[in-house]
Design a protein that fits this description.
This protein is 84% helix and 0% strand. The protein has 209 residues and is an all-alpha fold.
Length: 209
């Protein structure tokens, strides 16, 4: 009917006990996501996510949490980390190698893009590399190695900056010490001059007598 055609597709009229309801929301969300309709995608992924949570369906939680994390990253939302960690926990519970690899890489990428979390990124990338080696995923290993090289390069740059900072401090300290030593030398020279003048005056006075 026209009324049913005009109703919102986001409000799928299915019985709550229908095991396909979450899948229907996920499929709809994926279509929205692929067409850059992020608002509706977020809404449908979250509805599917809540249903899967209620059903303790770790496969479904992993899928929807992974996409919700991507959307949160786009929106610069701090909830992204929660979804990434949950997706990884589900992958580990399922003991599904590909899921674990994808979730670990995603978490590593998230940490990599946070200035203060480079160490955490390194840990996740190493974990991902071990998983990829076990699965013999050469493409993923190559991608991970590039991330590790970038982290190593950034680490070297940070260490160089730190060393430069320390060198600057040492130079400033050396300059202060040199200036202090010069001042002491000047004072000592001044004292010697005063003493010499005093001795001359005493000698002159004695001769006059």
């Amino acid at each position: 009917s026209n009324n049913s055609n005009n109703s919102s597709v986001n409000d799928i009229s299915l019985n709550e006990k229908n095991s396909y309801k979450a899948l229907a929301y996920s499929n709809l969300a994926s279509c929205y996501y692929d067409n850059e309709n992020i608002t509706d995608a977020r809404d449908c992924f979250f509805k599917a996510y809540k249903i899967e949570k209620a059903r303790n369906n770790y496969d479904g939680i992993y899928f929807n949490a992974s996409y919700l994390a991507k959307i949160c990253i786009r929106d610069k939302s701090k909830k992204a980390l929660d979804f990434l960690i949950e997706a990884k926990q589900c992958a580990e519970f399922l003991n599904e190698g590909f899921y674990e690899l994808e979730a670990t890489l995603a978490l590593g990428d998230y940490y990599y893009n946070q200035a203060s979390l480079k160490k955490e990124a390194l840990i996740e990338y190493f974990r991902a590399k071990r998983i990829a080696q076990i699965l013999s995923y050469s493409v993923d290993i190559s991608k991970i190695d590039k991330g590790l090289e970038a982290l190593h390069s950034e680490g070297a740059s940070l260490r160089a900056m730190q060393q430069q900072h320390e060198d600057d401090i040492n130079k400033r300290n050396a300059g202060v010490e040199a200036e202090y030593a010069s001042t002491l030398a000047s004072l000592a020279e001044s004292d010697r001059t005063i003493e010499s003048d005093y001795q001359r005056q005493m000698t002159s006075g004695a001769n006059a007598e």
